[in-house]
Amino acid sequence: MAIALTTLVAEAQRYLNAARISDYCPNGLQIEGRPQVRRIVSGVTASQALVDAAVAAEADVLLVHHGYFWKGENPCITGMKQRRLKTLLSNDISLLAYHLPLDVHPEVGNNVQLAAQLEITVEGPLDPDDPRSVGLLGSLSEPMSPRDFARRVQEVLGREPLLVEGLEMVRRIGWCTGGGQGYIDQAIAAGVDLYLTGEASEQTFHSARENGISFIAAGHHATERYGVQALGDYLARRFAIEHLFIDCPNPI
Prior knowledge:
Strand content: 15-25%
Oligomer: single chain
Number of domains: 2
CATH class of the largest domain: Alpha Beta
Structural class: alpha/beta
CATH architecture of the largest domain: 3-Layer(aba) Sandwich
Helix content: 25-40%
């Protein structure tokens, strides 16, 4: 079965409420390919490796979290950017990308999907008074030591996380996938035992240590694999088309 590209894009836009979210890149259809869609390939970042894999998988649409055309980047179509775009255009593959709308969605968002993977019960936003905050606050059913929770993260995500170990047992957790280390201050204010994100900055260590909480950096790519899979599955079910998630491993 096939669905019109315009119909697929319209449903993704509606479902994610993308038009209402201010972002650093255009959300939605970034590159237009063939008008009919039978197969979606999804992945975290529209790297050349993923683009090539989408070609090999005979995708009609490549659905990603990290697409192209970020604010402040050089707009010239040269080098790496030219090669990626040329591959998509020459193979008539559409690129559909959602950044912040995919982070914050209450059903397929990266943050809620990561919580499900790690068995964290979502309680609400990390900072309910800050509309720009995309992080979440939640809890474990039973307290765990920081090292035991870090082992759970490693087992689920398949990579050893960076752990700054605090003294307290972990029950209350704040988190934001990807490059969300800057939200650690909101997490501290919310009274968490541990803050989890993808990346770490130099000052993150000091914030965690001096405020007596644990901190885990589990990888930008690793923490953001689940939202795009869930969105691809939703669209595939909605329109009875094929969906294949392809993971191109990234240690960062």
